[in-house]
Specification:
The protein starts with a helix and ends with a helix. It folds into two domains: 85 residues, Winged helix-like DNA-binding domain superfamily/Winged helix DNA-binding domain (Arc Repressor Mutant, subunit A), CATH 1.10.10; 39 residues, no CATH class. α2 packs across α4 and α3 packs across α4. β1 and β2 form a beta hairpin. By secondary structure, the protein is mainly α. Strands 1-2 form a two-stranded antiparallel ribbon.
Length: 130
């Protein structure tokens, strides 16, 4: 179950706990995990993903503090958030930065300056706002 919902990329420079947090939030945000679904135990998820159990416990605890998970003592951890609530904090800003980086990289590759791109966006916005 865990391997199909969350994956860890050892080549990614993003810390494992951040990859796990992002993966669990994404599983909830996309509906692969829904309110009330039980998550694997800390130990089971750690074994499945081949990561340290303390890392999984840390992510579960942080997601519980954020209201994303609910832990029932002696029973397990359950999804408590809707897809809208599960989006990582600052996800919009992160995605926008990545988009702008791609656009500027593509523009530079074909010889456009940042100033030219910004000016064209301004002209385009002016025409669209009419």
């Amino acid at each position: 179950m865990a391997a199909s919902l969350v994956s860890i990329d050892s080549r990614d420079r993003t810390p494992i706990y951040a990859q796990l947090d992002r993966g669990l939030r994404a599983a909830i945000a996309t509906g692969r995990l829904q309110v009330g679904d039980q998550l694997p135990t800390v130990r089971q998820l750690a074994v499945d993903l081949r990561v340290n159990a303390n890392t999984v416990a840390r992510v579960y605890a942080e997601l519980e503090r954020a209201g994303i998970l609910e832990t029932r003592r002696g029973i397990g951890s359950f999804v408590a958030a809707t897809p809208q609530q599960a989006h990582p904090p600052n996800e919009h800003a992160r995605r926008l930065r990545a988009f702008v980086t791609r656009v500027l990289g593509d523009a530079a590759a074909v010889g456009f300056s940042i100033e030219e791109v910004v000016a064209e966006i301004g002209r385009h916005r002016h025409h669209v706002d009419r």
